[in-house]
Write a structure and sequence with these properties.
This protein has about 425 residues and is an alpha+beta fold. It is about 30% helix and about 25% strand. The protein is globular.
Length: about 425
Amino acid sequence: MRKSDKKRSSSLLGAPVRVPLKWLAATVALAVVATTGPATADGQGHEPGVEPTPERAPTSEVSWLSFPGGVFAVDSLGHTVRYRACDGDTGRVADPGMRVAAGVASGAVVVGGTAYRYRVPLVGRAEGTLEVIQRHRSPTTLTGVVVTSPQPPTDPIAGARLLPLSGQLARVVADASLNPAGVTVRDLSGRYGDQQIAVNGSLRPKAASVIKLWILVELLRRVDCGQVALDDGVLVTPEDVVGGTGQLQFETFPQVVTLHRLARYLIKYSDNVAANVLITYLGGFAPVNALIDSMNQRSTILARRMLDSAAAQRGEENYTSPDDVVSLLGAVWDGEILTPASRDLMIGFMREQTLNTKIPAALPPGVPVAHKTGDLPDASHDVGYYLIPGTETAVAFLTAGPMATGDETVRRMARTVYDFLVTPSEGAVEE
């Protein structure tokens, strides 16, 4: 697995910073415009079970700066920013004075007496800077890689060799007459220049259990910040028990369950009890949606608990898209949102997945994968990593419509990607 080679400054924790008074005067017009992340779009999608993608800036207009312990998100079209790190969260903040020139967004905002002066390129893999200044403290300068969705290829020539896969996947998607489908694929190995391709990458079906990946990342982010430990215990009561997938529902409660077991079961068994307990433990929907918003993932939202049919009837639903899933998977893999230790733990949980009727069933026995499924009567998904040595790849296969035919569509997409990667004439280079 590749380790990130990005240059990064030290964490903010314990760093003394100072704010010039002129900065405070310059930001009188500052407005906090949102704190709980993206919202669902109004209206119905053009296909059953698919919501229209919310209004969003073009991908070249949104980026986020990754630094140890946090992110700084920039939407240059909407002139908003968000700082979210171990030491706090500004929420989504308006910066009317943001300057956008030569592909770089720069500006300064003040929130709660802390000033954030930034220079963030709008091109992925570039380096950005953020200066954090508080009264009576020395400034702290943070530097890190800029993340966009998609990230540009590191080698466009090598990346061009992945492009024919788009046509093959488009044919599978077109054949799925009962199931609107979308797929996004990103090379993680460098073999294809870290190229990303997609067919209907903005498709926005119900997220089903794929949303559990964001719940896990938010938990592990807090572990990385030293705010919680995985051996901490959480009291689970009979009122927390729901049906569907999972193992905890068959145990006796009340009992104290460690965060480690909740996190592992969340992915390994797609445990709905674990998901709901962790949502409560994290503080509800808002922190998970704040994570989503900080990575500028506009198609994804956590709006209800697992198996909450009353909320679903009220129109409160979880959504995502193939592009957003791969945005998350890529950031995890590259160490941009989690530490290497937490990344490895998350991928380890995904390798233990017990629901294996889609991606693993489509591939030859023994092909290493780490994945997370999602199933509803009107949605079938499987997302994750192909861990073929030297050809590691992030994939997201999402469908709406009848689950049974959706399962088959996912399997066809999964096999199409695999065959391309291992076929020298079309995919991988013959050694």
